Amino acid sequence: MSRIIxxxxxxxxxxxxxxxxxxxxxxxxxxxxxxxxxxxGMLHEARVLDLFAGSGxxxxxxxxRGAAAVTLxxxxxxxxxxxxxxxxVVHRALGRDDVVAVHQGAVAAYLADPAKGPWDLVLxxxxxxxxxxxxxTVLAALVGRLGEGGVVVVERSSRSPEPEWPSGxxxxxxxxxxxxxxxxxxxxxxxAPPPGAPR
Length: 199
Fold this sequence. Notes:
The chain is α/β, with parallel strands linked by helices. The chain has one domain: 3-Layer(aba) Sandwich (Rossmann fold), CATH 3.40.50.150. It has helices spanning about 25-40, 55-65, 75-95, 105-110, 130-140, and strands at about 1-5, 15, 45-50, 70-75, 100-105, 120-125, 145-155, 170-175, 180-185. α2 (about 55-65) runs parallel beside α3 (about 75-95). It is an enzyme of class 2 (transferase).
């Protein structure tokens, strides 16, 4: 069972997804990830998209730390039930029930709707079976759909290669924590970035 590390719901326990094929983010990795995001000012009032949400732990952490709207996208019914239960935990802590939304369905189908977005932060922690080509397709669907200064975070096994970034996204930072690798990308710029850009 995982927990929310910090923020309005800090310390509260979250349910985990039963079965195989998921890779829960450890507290150590989550703490490192969100320390970076907070240092960059990425969370306050952010619009967050949590793809392949699993238990929704990353999106719920973002909501606890001040995100304005979080959408958890997950296709597997047992995981969707856990996402909804964990969203309810966060809503009780925040005293409102309109921060975390849960969408049941495939990530590709969700992103195929051009009306979705824009987002300030996209968290993608795909399951082991997802191939690199499929991941590239997901990343390509995010091009042009980030808000100003928006960031995409991809979390994978440290044995996985770096994602193949589509035209329109560029990786600006990466990190490794044991068995977990994280890559951070932003909209590819054709000119110098503004002061304070996350890089």
